[in-house]
Amino acid sequence: MEEISTNDTLERKKAMIIKAAMEVFAQNGYAKGSIGDIAAKAEIGKATLYYYFDSKEALFMEAVKLAYQLFFENIEKQVASLVGFEARFRALVRIPIRYIYEHVPILFEARNSFPEAYLAELETLQEYGRQRMRNNIHRLFQEGLAEKKVDDRFSFEALSNVVHDWMMMAELNCDLHERQMIMQKLEKEQDLLIDLVLYGILKRG
Amino acid sequence: MEEISTNDTLERKKAMIIKAAMEVFAQNGYAKGSIGDIAAKAEIGKATLYYYFDSKEALFMEAVKLAYQLFFENIEKQVASLVGFEARFRALVRIPIRYIYEHVPILFEARNSFPEAYLAELETLQEYGRQRMRNNIHRLFQEGLAEKKVDDRFSFEALSNVVHDWMMMAELNCDLHERQMIMQKLEKEQDLLIDLVLYGILKRG
Amino acid sequence: MEEISTNDTLERKKAMIIKAAMEVFAQNGYAKGSIGDIAAKAEIGKATLYYYFDSKEALFMEAVKLAYQLFFENIEKQVASLVGFEARFRALVRIPIRYIYEHVPILFEARNSFPEAYLAELETLQEYGRQRMRNNIHRLFQEGLAEKKVDDRFSFEALSNVVHDWMMMAELNCDLHERQMIMQKLEKEQDLLIDLVLYGILKRG
Amino acid sequence: MEEISTNDTLERKKAMIIKAAMEVFAQNGYAKGSIGDIAAKAEIGKATLYYYFDSKEALFMEAVKLAYQLFFENIEKQVASLVGFEARFRALVRIPIRYIYEHVPILFEARNSFPEAYLAELETLQEYGRQRMRNNIHRLFQEGLAEKKVDDRFSFEALSNVVHDWMMMAELNCDLHERQMIMQKLEKEQDLLIDLVLYGILKRG
DNA sequence: GATGAATGAGTGTTCATTCAT
DNA sequence: GATGAATGAACACTCATTCAT
């Protein structure tokens, strides 16, 4: 019992540090996101941080895992709350953008200073994320088929892969300090984009 | 005459340094791409580098400009060598990917450590790039219209904006050290994506 | 208790670093007195020094404060140990010389590389020093008057101001770029000083 | 003839550089007064400066010599234009202040980075200055005596030495590493000075 | 005579990491 | 468990000086 509650406290503390790390890395990037800032945000000493995590890389890995988890929790909850293929498809395209926008470039940056060991772990994590995303998309397209909304010209596998991969892209050439405006712009553009994907641009002859 | 050849040598040296900088920044990112590494790659002393450039930021700006220039030279040359709307559209989508993939996340990262003055210059440069890209896309769609290939349901402006913005996104969650494979994967995926954009996913009827 | 002894150790270490800084700056001046030398003299790592002090400027400020403190402790102790106006006046003139000789030109030099924030603090410190010195001089002259040793031809205020300013060898708390004003002030004061040298301050009897 | 005019040009150029150096050193101090700034102010290339002068120290020496020369030219011209002991004494005290104020702390600072060879030359230069100043003072006091204005209680030699040394704001021509001796000398001289302040130098009548 | 180009040696400062307590 | 204190290694940047032309 005591063990459990102790472990609980420990895990809760770890979680707090990871959350702080996620915020600091999201704001400043990997290189500029310093251990000192994270410790300060978590309101602990720098050395304490090293009691819980082996290195900056290890902590970053945990922050990435947390971001992934929040991302999927959010997306799946929202998709579940909607009805019909089109509505769900739109949601599935829209929601990832902010997460991608905030976290992916940092992932990218981090890779450059990562030792092999962590790169492999990162890869594994990303493969897991890709799979989960693909599942979501796959399920959605099957619903679309059942609803007779989706053209059956394309294979499911390829289609969900492609949609997933493009979902993982984002408008990057923007000012980090003006995220709100960008987000609004992106969200408006998405409607057009989605129309484009839904109806295509070529004339039928 | 002598003046010209002297300036020429000087400019050639500057260009070499910028090239070295572009490579180092592309490989290591902005924060981890050190002046020392760049100087070593350019085979000059660190202090010499400061004879040619005022600061790391200034040098980075030049590296970004070079990447932009190479990007547009490449894309426009390739598009010009192809015939017909579809072929050109495919090229215009495919080629940017590698450049975006290599340079955009670094741009992102750099912003975090950039002083106001350089941010403004960066913005200007990006606006220029956006405009030039938009022009390419716009011209292409007009050709598509003339060829009666493109559906006229969408406004040109909106359409070229959207296509441009999505063109500026890229598959980021990949291993920087295995770019070749990723690039191949991306290029395969793009065909499917392009089909998708060209024909849409919804059944007509 | 433990708190106190811990703080004590910390403060003692800080004090050691400040002392080392004071010595290095006194020997080499501000620009040539390097952080590395100070750390070496204090037998700590350079980075450790930055654990205790924010910057070279901040450390220099502390060194100046220490010099001031030692200066006044010394001068006031010695004056207190003597009897009679003449003896005390001699002491009050003699003692400052060494401190001025050792520290003032360095203060001067430092101003050139100091940011605004520290200049203001320096000003405050110097104003405090001026006041404390003026008090010492004023008290002494009142004693001299009481002893009927000092000629009452000069006003106390003006006299102690002038003696103080000249004792400080030059008005230092001035903007290097506003030398004209300072020069005018000094030149006015000089008349009083010259009277003093020409006629002396002691009553003839 | 041609030789002479060439030498003339050469000397004129040297003089321009020295003037620039004097100004830069006066403004920024020795350490912060950079060769680059001086070359820019003299409107020549940095390398050209090294064609005319061996090193920063050598150039500084010349700047000091120039300051000395201007100082004496100025002071002697002004004293000569005045009549009577008191007027001349006032001038002799007033004029040095600006020069001292502007140049002495820099001299001080420079010693710290000077190699032996230049320190000796500096010493020589200062000894020359001292002598010339002493002569001026000596002459003045003889006039004062002749005018029966000056009290004969003080020896000429001692008096003019003391006045000179104090005018120099502090005995500078000393080895920083042998401060003890200097301090002792100053402390002895102070007694004379203090007598002077206490009793004045003018005869009562 | 004049200098553009080049640099080695050094500066102040940062930061992930360790260790004694 | 927790941390204050300490640091090595690195970084961007400066500057007096040199050298080929």
Structure description:
4 copies of one chain form a homotetramer. Chain A has 205 residues and is mainly α. Chain A has 2 domains: 1-53, Arc Repressor Mutant, subunit A (Orthogonal Bundle); 56-199, Tetracycline Repressor, domain 2 (Orthogonal Bundle), CATH 1.10.357. Helices cover 79% and strands 0% of the residues of chain A. The first copy, chain A, has 8 helices and no strands. Chain A has helices spanning 2-32, 35-42, 46-52, 56-80, 85-111, 116-146, 156-167, 179-199. The longest helix of chain A is centred in the N-terminal third of the chain and has 31 residues, at 2-32. Residues 168-179 of chain A have low confidence and may be disordered. The interface between A and B is large, with 55 and 57 residues. Chain B binds a DNA duplex (21 and 21 nucleotides) through helix 1 and helix 3.
Produce a short descriptive summary:
Chain A is built from 8 helices and no strands. With 205 residues, the first copy, chain A, is mostly helical. In chain A, helix 1 crosses helix 2, helix 1 (2-32) crosses helix 4 (56-80) and helix 5 (85-111) crosses helix 8.
CATH class of the largest domain in chain A, named: Mainly Alpha
* Class per helix and strand makeup of chain A: mainly alpha
Mean pLDDT of chain A: 77
Distance between the termini of chain A: 72 Å
The biggest chain-chain interface is: A-B, 55 and 57 residues
Rg of chain A, Cα atoms, Å? 20 Å
CATH topology of the largest domain in chain A: Tetracycline Repressor, domain 2
Helix content range of chain A: over 70%
Unreliable spans of chain A: 168-179
* H/E element sequence of chain A: HHHHHHHH
CATH superfamily name of the largest domain in chain A? Tetracycline Repressor, domain 2
CATH architecture descriptor name of the largest domain in chain A: Orthogonal Bundle
Strand-residue proportion of chain A = under 5%
Tally the structural domains of chain A: 2
* Largest sheet features of chain A: none
Secondary structure: number of strands of chain A:
0
Rough outline of chain A: elongated
